[in-house]
Amino acid sequence: MSHSTHDEINLVRLIRRLEKSTLDPSWSNDGDDVWLKTLGTLQTVKYARKLLKNVELNDYDPISKNVRRYNELRMTLDRIDTFAKDVEKRVTPVPRRPEPLLPHIPIPEAPQSPERSPPGTTTHLPEGDDLVPLPVPLPTTDSLLLSPSDPPSTTISPLPTLLPASATSKATGVSVLQTTKALHNELSEQLAQMATQLKRNAVHFSDSLAADKVIVEEAQQKIESNFNFMRKERVRLRDFRGKSGSTTCLVVMAVIVVTVLFIFMVMLIRLTR
Q1: Parallel/antiparallel/unpaired status of strands 154-155 and 137-138
Q2: Does the first or last residue of the chain, that is N or C, have fewer Cβ atoms within 10 Å of its Cβ?
Q3: Where are the transmembrane segments (predicted)?
Q4: pLDDT tens-place string over residues 40-99
């Protein structure tokens, strides 16, 4: 009941606030702010309708006064909803398509093919001895006084030639072979150690299985002997039960006879006194 009263109070306050908001002169303006305000008002109207429905459901036995008040609240909500929808139709922004980007993209230029040399010409690169520089003459102090026709007296010895590529590749190949061989030896040693450890584990596992097998066999023998003993005792118990049945009946009858005689003697003693 308190929950229903709380919803009813919230409903009345909410409808009053909506009625006051509809009197705001800013509804006549246009713009995104008015559109967002309209959407919020519509959501508030939906929430108010939900509160009104809860109040009506919680009022199990409504009187005519409450029914009339509920109808008035519903009519007020309908009027506010109609007003908000009219404003929404008026201020809803028209969706605009973005400008296409294709007209602004420049047309790609065709790639230029590289110039080709005539088919009859070939390019030669220096090879072998062509890479060795020729001796360069250097002038001396004496040659400065000679005429241009006299040859110079000293020359620079040619530069040493570069090492051939075959020697460098051979040295690199030897170092790679040594590294590979060392790695191979190390891996072989590790594999040998792993094989030895695996063999030890296998031997230990087989010894454990043998010991467990002996224990299992001993337990099986004990279980079989206990089973045979229980079978014998079962036969003996059955025979004893058959023999003791008659004895039990005799004992019960003797007890009954003694009890009857005792009662008879007590009654006889009392009667004879």
Answers
A1: antiparallel
A2: C
A3: 250-269
A4: 998 999 998 888 888 888 877 778 888 888 888 889 989 999 998 988 888 887 777 777
234 alpha carbon, distance to own chain's centre: 64
CA distance 236 to 241: 8
CA–CA gap between residue 220 and residue 207 (Å, rounded): 20
**Looking up tokens 């009053």, which residue turns up?**
16
Give the H or E element holding residue 154: strand 154-155
- At which residue do the structure tokens 């809803």 appear? 92
Structure tokens belonging to residue 201: 């584990």
Per residue in 9-35, is it b (16+ CB within 10 Å) or e — as a string? Answer: eebeebbeebeebeeeeebeeeeeebb
End-to-end CA, the chain: 90
